[in-house]
Amino acid sequence: MIHIAAVDDEWPALKRVGKLLETMEGVQVSGLFGSAREMLEHALTKADALDLVLLDVEMPGMQGLELARRLRAVRPEIQVVFITAYAEFARDAFEVEAMDYLLKPVTAEDLEKTLARYARRFGRETSMPDREPSEPGLSVRSFGPFDVVSPLGSSVRFRNSKSRELLAYLHHHRGRTIGKSQILEDLWHGGDIERTQATLHSTVYQLRKDLEACGIDYAIEQARTAGGSYSLRWTVTRDDVTAFRTEYEIFQRTSSLTNVIRAIQLYGDGYLAGSGYAWAAPRQAELELIFIELLEAMANAYVRQQRYEIALNPLQKWAELLPLSGRLHAKMIALLLLTGKEKDARAYHELALELADRPEESELLDFDRLAAHPASWF
Asked: Which numeric CATH code is attached to 2-122?
């Protein structure tokens, strides 16, 4: 049984969440609170079981983020899930170790996924489908600096940068067997053949030691056929790239903004960001295009909800990645027009025309067309 409380100063939203929770087996609603102070007082004075709290971020008086910090201090066993209408709070939510982040209006499917995630993490019985292994296992992060967390909960400590790169490279190929000559070409391009072969052997040896120190044995498999080859033989239970693709696929089927937010949060700064691994460039470009599609979907959703100021954020991130995109510039101009900033829209239009390097993009930027129906661009 999972004991849950919800906090929201908007009674209709709070009542909706309460009714959804009451329909779910394996869940007991411990309270619905209209303010952060009521929730904090309950947590401080009542000794009843409380496993999970659903918090609205924007509340008068004490904000949801501050309540989460105080709950962490007095009842660290309570897990927090943020519920809000504003996507820009996502990063702060995860900084206070929130278990999940849901966008309003919350659906039964959103809550079921969150409860299933809680059940997997803490071994509780619910009626929710268990989509991921509950046993602790390997966790791999490829968005941002490459990192591996062992089943024991500790990150692998790489003694040198090439050990880290070699493991990232083998994981990048997802279990495929890679010939030694290909590895030498990708990781030590242009080096003396005898010297780089010796370096590869010593790097493999060191990497095995690094993995064994974290309880990861026999992960690197070596074959002597066809001039020698290597492959990675391990079972990963949590992989951020796989999770990103899953959220993206669900979004493609459902158009759910919640899945868009989760995928964007996973992406962070990008695939193996800052690594300088040339061999990773094709996948970096592939995932970046998906990320841009998600940013566009987020902006479109916010404009349809008439949350124009929030819609600007994903467009700005898109501009950082593809500053010459005519479609992006058309949307930026349309958004400025929707917010009543015609003077800014005209100034942006002039700048965008200078950046446009193809005739078809200049056609996209016809100001009169944009001004006639700006919402149609979203």
From this structure: 3.40.50.2300
